[in-house]
Fold each of these.
Amino acid sequence: MAKGNAKRVKPAETELKEKLVNLNRVAKVTKGGRTFSFAAIVVVGDGNGSVGHGLGKARDVSESIAKAVDDAKKNLIKVPIYKGTIPHEQKGKYGAGKVLIKPAADGTGVIAGGPMRAVLEIAGVHNVLAKSQGTSNPHNMVKATIDALSKLRSPMDVARQRGITLDKLFNG
């Protein structure tokens, strides 16, 4: 799942916040009637650059959310955040879910729809412009957003790879 420069991280579990993105009730028809179960999509993060997503399925709501949180803690990635926003524009894709995220000036806030907003807020990005260009399926949108965030490169990494200083990187 983690592509590009994204590094898997394991922060202390007490500082992680969780956010329920979607809860889906599904029914299986048996001879005794319908049997309901729940599928929960959850994102977790520390609000400081670590974010992960998880899916949990169970017969009751709280158990499915707990499973999703456990799954999300296993899929954490580190996101480079520079001055409260992302370092550069990036596209992400997962299935039919396509997202575009752009850095924004200080004071803009998180301009993003539904599942993308949850991922970006929990990651600790305060100013960003985001656009969903494909499906509105929450599962694919969350994974596409995580894909875009995992492809981001920090300004320090770019400067190091080019063999120049940060000052020269920004001022030409």
Amino acid sequence: MAVITFKNVNKVYENNVHAVFDFNLQIKDKQFVALVGPSGCGKSTTLRMIAGLEDISSGEIYIDDVCINSVEPKDRGIAMVFQNYALYPHMTVRDNMAFALEMRGVPKNVRNEKVAEVAKILGLEKYLDKKPKELSGGQRQRVALGRAIVREAKVFLMDEPLSNLDAKLRASMRNEIRRIHNKVGATTIYVTHDQVEAMTMADVIVVMKDGFVQQIGTPTEVYNNPSNLFVAGFIGTPQMNFIDASLSKDGVAFFDALISMDASFKDGVKSFYESQLEELRSDVEELEKLIAEHPRKKKLFSLKKKNKKEAENPLSYEAQLKNKREMIEKIENIINNDAYPIKLGVRPDDLLMANGENKSSHENRFSMEKVSTEMLGHDVIFHLERDGVEISISKPVKEVDLEVSHLELSLDPNAYYLFDPITGSRL
């Protein structure tokens, strides 16, 4: 198998779109790593750089101790599974799975033996003489997986392989892929925009946004200890609730509730902002130098789609510089006015209900009005609103009154998060 190492990897396209920024990561032998994030975050570009389908603008990628920057894709020891299966329609399942071996000159009897062995693992024995058009989506995806396994590659790359399947089939295929990984043991990098896939399948999750790595950790670490607002809101279903709050001398105030805090907490927040100012000013200086040394197009870039207006490249150096200058201005204003905004985060299943039999003795109570409900079988989600703020709460159906219209809630003192709304950092 293989260890994969990224060292300061960047990808900049010819139209000056900077798709991946300073990517650093080491993937251990036999590890299953998921790159997760919204569309345009750079995850597929990162995968394609490993495969050799995209050039690396700067930095280095190693498989074991070999830098693969200039190694031909066919010589990298990699097998890739695509979103659209990429099967040859005129070939049978057997021939699709054996094609890479045939190209390498493997004798026919050995090819047939390997294909039969993998087909048994994937439950494809009775489909070997069929063509892709005769198969279901799940069966075609298993053929694509089988083709990768037959190659006995050191590294498996999977680019959103389940996105074309229905919800039930996706769930079963998640288990199938994880089972195959445990059996085959190849180092696997799996790209997905679906955080449920990442949480249920991966040993390690890499959360990305706008080309930057936001957090790296196990599913449990990323869920329980999100490093910033983006990760907290992206990981977890239903999504974490966010409520605007403010820091007073007594604690964090929101609605008509208060989270009591020691006076030292406010001093800590002020110190945090001061350190953020130093970092931001340093970043501004560095960006100004980069722009001076490598002038980038300041004009809008085309989306190349009919009836679409041109839009500013959100990943350009100029956009970063503008954003950081705006953040500096906001932080300076906060410090000068001694008024610290806070973003309070709490997961829907961590909110406590103070109604009826479930009346809570906890402090930090506040009230919300019910807008709607979602029945999920065992659980129910209440969608609530107050002063234009919408949140949700998830509870077992047996524990709640479904007809209630006004809910009294409180925070579990051990299950909430505080974030800086300017930088997004967790406090």
